Amino acid sequence: MKDSILVINCGSSSLKFAILANAGQETLVEGIADRLGTDESSITFKFEGKKNEIQLDVGSHKNAVDQIKSWLNSHPTIEHSLAGIGHRVVHGGETFSKSVLINQDVVTGIKKYSQFAPLHNPAHVKGIEVAFELFPGLPQVAVFDTAFHQTLAPEQYLYPIPMHFYREHHFRKYGFHGTSYRYISQRLAQIANGSDQQGVLVAHLGNGASTCAINKGKSSDTSMGITPLEGLMMGTRSGSLDPSLLSFISQAENISFESTLDILNKQSGLLGVSEISNDCRTLEEAMESGDLRAKLALDMFAARTAKHLASVATTLESIDHLVFTGGIGENSSYLRQAICNHLKALNIRIDSDINDNAPRGETLNISAKDSNTNVWVIPTNEELMIALDTISLIQH
């Protein structure tokens, strides 16, 4: 029975993968190829509760997919169950408003939007081309991070700059994390009857972080823009700031515009403010041992997240639900509390005891009894969405 899907998520220097069976409900194997492009690259397979790490002779995306193919060769039952391959693609621009079966036109479209996602889209193309080479005959599907936000109204997605920039170059807000937001919207509808007809705020908080307003099941605003740099303060990204700051930094340091952007993308956020780490867990440990820089970084992150939740909420008729998801959203009780403390004016309150004792990996309502809004912790599952989209498109 061919019912399993290989899900591939290519980053600039990594490749995450999983094989899901039973309509995406069962993970047969998963893993990650890390530090691609260096001499220290390796790939890890997690199968039947055991982890196996293999050093890669050549740290390329092709070699990583080669290793997945070799692993499948030695597990023929799983190999023969493969029905297709689903790829996460960060930027689909205005061309792709839903997941699609991949052909040459789709690959050309993904390449076209590489200018907006130079770290991600070229890596996705590599992953797709290698997968076609190594798995000839298997249908492949592209699932776009930007697709869910194609329902935004023009007053939300246009930038207040001369309109010819949009007409000629498609410069506009696109938003990201769409696959996660779509999963959260569907999962919430399963546990909170009628939420698909209500107003929902979601904070997807990880090393990359964004907020989204979902009105009756559709994205109505989101914090990330033409690239993932806009919006919240993140692990290493600054998020939104006065654009003139780029000019000031460039002149002060006597560096190019590209180098300045590099600082905002890779050396800012939690890392830049704390001067310790971009990892929330490390910063919370440092804060608990009295490090004031770590506390400042976390408190700035919370304040900006709350600000962007309130901002996207202006597109909703009511705020019926607030959902925390992503690595930080699911696991940091400190930041959930700090963010909700900033939302008291909206009468959003959580029960501190339930929040502090929330078990990892579980779906939970953490609202206080007097909160106007239901507050949830819901683990996201982008791989499941990719697998389900792939199955759906293959079967048609």
UniProtKB/TrEMBL annotation:
Mg(2+). Can also accept Mn(2+). Mg(2+) binds at N9, E382. The record marks H177, R237 as: Transition state stabilizer. The keyword Kinase applies. NCBIfam families: ackA (TIGR00016). It comes from the Bacteria. This is Acetate kinase. Homodimer. Gene3D superfamilies: 3.30.420.40. Keywords: ATP-binding, Cytoplasm, Kinase, Magnesium, Metal-binding, Nucleotide-binding, Transferase. The active site is at D145 (proton donor/acceptor). It catalyses: acetate + ATP = acetyl phosphate + ADP. Its cofactor is Mg(2+); Mn(2+). Catalyzes the formation of acetyl phosphate from acetate and ATP. Can also catalyze the reverse reaction. It is found in: Cytoplasm. ATP binds at K16, H204, L205, G206, N207, G208, D279, C280, R281, G327, I328, G329, E330, N331. GO terms for molecular function: kinase activity. It comes from Marinomonas foliarum. It is an enzyme of class 2 (transferase). Its main location: cytoplasm. Pathway: Metabolic intermediate biosynthesis; acetyl-CoA biosynthesis; acetyl-CoA from acetate: step 1/2. Substrate binds at R88. It holds the Pfam family Acetate_kinase. Its EC number is 2.7.2.1. Belongs to the acetokinase family.
